[in-house]
Amino acid sequence: MxxxxxxxxxxxxxxxxxxxxxxxxxxxxxxxxxxxxxLTTFIxxxxxxxxxxxxDFMIVVEGSGASxxxxxxxxxxxxxxxxxxxxxKIPQITLFFGSSREIIEFMLACDTDGILLDKQCxxxxxxxxxxxxxxxxGQCGGFDMLANSTPAEITDKVHRCLDLGxxxxxxxxxxxxxxRIENIEAFVRAxxxxxxxxxxxxxxxxxx
Length: 208
What we know:
Blueprint: E1 2-6, H1 8-15, H2 18-27, H3 29-53, E2 57-62, H4 70-76, H5 78-85, E3 92-96, H6 101-109, E4 114-116, H7 123-126, E5 136-139, H8 145-148, H9 151-163, E6 168-170, H10 181-193, H11 199-206
Helix pairs in contact: 1-3, 2-3, 3-5, 9-10
């Protein structure tokens, strides 16, 4: 069983007005840093609760990389993300939104067990930045794919994504409510049957 964990900026956007948060970034960076430190403490406590409840792995999502400069991210957010990820309490996958080279470097600096690539990133340009020992996860298809595509179309999309170099892929965001069961089955089967996809190797890489 896996859980999604918000990063400190993502969580701050839920408890503060987003515009006010950006103003704090620009005009009161030290105050923003203290806020992220407090939220990081809370996030680590939340992770402990999920582990106690039986979570096997976590996906840590930080959306700020797409909207703030890499220099600011490095100064105000990277220390908090490292504090969340480096203890390695359970296997972890990291998703930082954004398409810059620095975003990939930031995820690697957190010593993550796996990387979930933002759809804005070009897999052909970023695959070479990521060590082959780190599993690379990708999002496959549009939000309505599982509802409106055919099983054959889904199989083709999954295989094309895997051909690009992903270790494995997942549907974009949550499973769309009108998704058809035959399409969900086709998605899973396409992963299992892909000739270069090894679930055993994946489990070994991220210790799930």
